[in-house]
Amino acid sequence: MKIYFLSFILAFAMSFVTTPLVKKLAFAIGAIDVPDDKRRIHTKPIPRLGGLAIFAGTMASLLLLLPKSHETIGIILGSLVIVLLGVLDDKYTLSAKVKLVGQIAAALILILSGIRIDWISNPFGSGVIYLKSWVAISLTLLWVVGVTNTINLIDGLDGLAAGIAFISSTSLFIISLLNGRYATAVISIAIAGASLGFLPYNFNPAKIFMGDTGAMFLGFLLSAISIQGAIKSATAIAIVVPVLVLGVPIFDTLFAIIRRILNKRPIMEADRGHLHHRLLDKGLNQKQVVFILYGVSLVLGVSAILISFSSELKSLVILAVSLLFILWGANKIELLRNNKKGTQTR
Predict the structure, then answer these.
(1) Do residues 114 and 71 make contact, with C-beta atoms less than 8 angstroms apart?
(2) What are the transmembrane regions (predicted)?
(3) What is the spatial distance between Cα 194 and Cα 83, in angstroms, rounded to a whole number?
(4) What gap in Å lies between CA 202 and CA 249, rounded to an integer?
């Protein structure tokens, strides 16, 4: 366990120490988030580029503690493409098409390095389903690009994305250990350390944002390690494990896509209909919303861990109980909000 502890501490320390330096760099090059529309929650300009500190912390652990296998090199090179893309976007605001091309390029680097979904567990029986090459490549591209963007879309409140990334990567760390994926475990715990090292500067009231640099990097890396550490498991129900681990950003993104299609709006168009916006509109403050979503992410992460070493029947029970618990919590929030409204109107 020594290497995992070292990976966490190194990533945490590097991220924590470099964040103030990145903040100065953001001001120097003009990478500033100015609140110029109704979607923005903050009221004053905040520097972006905080993701560079998360990147520095994570890469320090990877470069020093992991052997330079094809997979590790692919993750590092793909991450460099994503971070460069993020820096340019935080500075110049790139178009959605340009970012998509960059994300696909980074995903192809992963695929060429050997990180791809070649097979999945059979959800209708025992064993696994081997995929044809074109299906494997297409599915991997869809997963990597999709998860890369889910973290970006949920990065709307101080500390939300960094905290979710910490919870998700810690869950993947445990799942990776259970599946004997030790290299993936080192990367997962490094992400956890780097995210936690950045969080003191990013929690409400935030002194710096991770920007697209951090959000896309975290999404990209989480998508890569979830392929290696969670998707490739022979247990049928395990096919839902990475979806549960990344449940909050994935479901928020899915609902956003459905909402925009129903409203006949472009899928890539930003709006104020995300889960955190809806909770804010119910009268909760930023910290309350962030802690609620932390709680949901934690429940889903623990559920994914339990499913990883449970039988099929137990896994289904765990999944059902987790979803019922979240629905119960949502109902309690609604009741509390209605009671608060009733008290205010008296």
Answers:
(1) yes
(2) 6-34, 46-66, 72-88, 100-117, 129-147, 159-176, 182-201, 213-231, 237-258, 289-309, 315-331
(3) 15
(4) 18
CB neighbour burial string for 118-148, b if at least 16 within 10 angstroms, e if fewer: bebbeeeeeeeeebeeeebbebbbebbbbbb
Neighbours of 29 (CB within 10 A): 14
131, 206 in Cβ contact below 8 A? no
Cα separation, 33 vs 155, whole angstroms: 13
3-state DSSP assignment of residue 263 = coil
Q: Is 338 annotated as a binding residue?
A: no
Q: Structure tokens of 31?
A: 């990478």
Contact yes or no for 121/239 (Cβ under 8 A): yes
- CA distances 85 to 49, 92, 216, 295, 314, Å, are 11, 10, 9, 31, 43
Angle at 172 between CA 134 and CA 256, to 5 degrees: 65
Burial pattern 315-338, b for ≥16 Cβ within 10 A else e, equals: beebbeebeeebeeeeeebeeeee
Instruction: Go through the chain and tell me how many residues it has.
Output: 346
Q: Residue 47 in 3-state DSSP?
A: strand
Angle at which helices 286-308 and 247-262 pack, to 10 degrees?
110
Using an 8 Å Cβ cutoff, are 204 and 287 in contact?
A: yes
The verdict on whether residue 331 carries a ligand-binding annotation is no
